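To illustrate the input format used throughout this study, we show a single complete record. The first block contains the structure-token representation of the backbone; no residue identities are included at this stage. The design step must infer an amino acid for every position from geometry alone.
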């Protein structure tokens, strides 16, 4: 049975487009009030106006660069200052790069790790105590099918998503008796602006899914009586992830390299 989030508040990072905007749409449709966090205020304001009108929910827009040190506590303090209690946290913000590691720009590498890993951990740590007390929502961290094997040509991105998957599954086990549903969502290639940032469509291995399909996978997992610690979106992606976990490591690395090559 589909869970209702009426009377609760969901905070969504990377909420200006793609999966973040879709999470906002689907949680609002289930009655959740929203806090939208991203850098692009204009896009979030447009989305907020639509969701308020369509679903009658409260939507707070917080323009913020999440790639800075200490942003988790900063975000928590700003939300608390506004008198908002967060029941559900969707850590969706992140980006990828696609080139040989030796050719990547050091500052971009640092930003990628800061946003994909450090911000996600910091935000989770800041909001988790209150969410555990509430026990009425969820923690969803967006990982990737890139988490299941090293990705030559996307070495840093794959490693950050492997961290997210490992971290989230561990937190899910630690909090399994709390009533809070904790989930690592692992999408494959998805029709979003992600590949515009990456700069190459060749990084899109496998069949593309829509944002609606990916977020729908997450919500179905959260609706289950026993929410798994992680879920892969799309049957073909689930099969590929299963093979990646069973084949010799050298084989999975070679396959991944061919899949994302220019």
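Output of the design step:
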């Amino acid at each position: 049975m589909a869970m209702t989030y009426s009377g609760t508040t969901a905070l969504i990072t990377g909420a200006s487009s793609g999966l973040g905007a879709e999470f906002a749409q689907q949680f609002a449709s289930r009655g959740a009030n929203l806090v939208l966090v991203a850098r692009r205020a204009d896009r979030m304001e447009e989305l907020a106006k639509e969701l308020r009108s369509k679903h009658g929910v409260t939507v707070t827009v917080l323009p913020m660069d999440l790639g800075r040190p200490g942003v988790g506590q900063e975000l928590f303090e700003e939300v608390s200052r506004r008198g908002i209690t967060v029941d559900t946290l969707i850590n969706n913000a992140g980006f990828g790069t696609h080139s040989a590691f030796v050719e990547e720009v050091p500052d971009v590498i640092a930003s990628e790790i800061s946003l994909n890993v450090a911000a996600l951990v910091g935000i989770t740590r800041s909001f988790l105590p209150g969410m555990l007390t509430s026990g009425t929502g969820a923690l969803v961290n967006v990982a990737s099918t890139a988490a299941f094997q090293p990705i030559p040509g996307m070495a840093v991105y794959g490693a950050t998503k492997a961290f997210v998957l490992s971290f989230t599954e561990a937190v899910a086990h630690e909090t399994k008796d709390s009533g809070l549903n904790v989930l690592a969502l692992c999408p494959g290639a998805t029709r979003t602006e992600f590949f515009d940032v990456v700069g190459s469509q060749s990084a899109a291995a496998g069949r593309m899914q829509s944002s609606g399909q990916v977020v729908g996978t997450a919500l179905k997992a959260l609706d289950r009586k026993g929410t798994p610690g992680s879920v892969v979106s799309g049957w073909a992606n689930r099969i590929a992830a299963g093979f990646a976990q069973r084949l010799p490591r050298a084989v999975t690395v070679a396959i991944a390299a061919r899949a994302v090559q220019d």
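Structural context for interpreting the output: Residues 142 and 151 are 17 Å apart (CA to CA). The mean pLDDT is 93.
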